[in-house]
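User:
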Amino acid sequence: MSSSPFMEQVRNDIRLRGYSMRTEKTYLFWIRQFILFNNKRHPSDMGVEEVKAFLTSLAVTRNVAVNTQKVALNAVVYLYHKVLNLELGDIDFSAASKQRHLPTTLSKAEVKAILENLPDPQRLIVSLLYGSGLRVSECLRLRVQDICFDRKALTIRDGKGKKDRQTLLGHSVVPKLKEAVNRALAIQERDNQSGIGPSLPGVLSKKYPSAYRAPGWMFVFPSESISEHPITGQFCRHHLHDSIVRKALRKAAPAAGVVNKRVNCHTFRHSFATHLLEDGYDIRSVQELLGHNDVKTTQIYTHVLGQHYAGTRSPLDSIVD
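Assistant: Predicted structure:
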């Protein structure tokens, strides 16, 4: 199924349009699921009714979250509109129920305790997740050119929604981050002697064959091994895999005494936003640092703080001395 000529056609179309590898994998997964759901019929022989049935089954039978159903919808719509050039029209399907879950956040003391129980480089990575409000993928994709030590700023390239943004860099993390940069550049120098360098986005390596030698393109957190680039087929060094950070957190949280909360990489981004608002920073500034399109997304953190009912007095306090 994965190596069928049709799926290769879809893969090539996604790459031609410059989508990220993560989006490519996600879209291919849901397109396969759609085809399998319809007994491996070719999508060109199907239409809106089959799409409707598939999306409805995700909500009714598989009980997926609303965001998961939206991703599946985006993948199938991409298939028809971009690859097959077919219009689906209105798709009247059963939507997954949308439940609002408040994000899990940590206290400052809990963040500090977890950091103290992490080894390097995981401690530095999680420090950046919390100190700069990064997603783990954004942190691991950082290249040397994305760091401005003078302005204490990080540039996040091709973030969620294919957007670039800038965020702050904490003073306390600068010395360790400089050490990480120096280690990464030393690895790049050794790799260059074998004609190898960091993996480069898209077909940049074909347009600029010597770009892999430029220090700016080196990953701050490079992988320990060499791998084959999925697009160019060239051997290169990618960045660390996020599983390394996740595994370390699974040990560090209980070791730090944080056993009553589900701690993952994104918890530190949530905590970054919550603590900035707690310290009195403007919600619009926090929105920009996080890269949210809509301030309503950022407002969820006011509910974590209880600011939505600020000033409201419990009726119990009026009857109990």
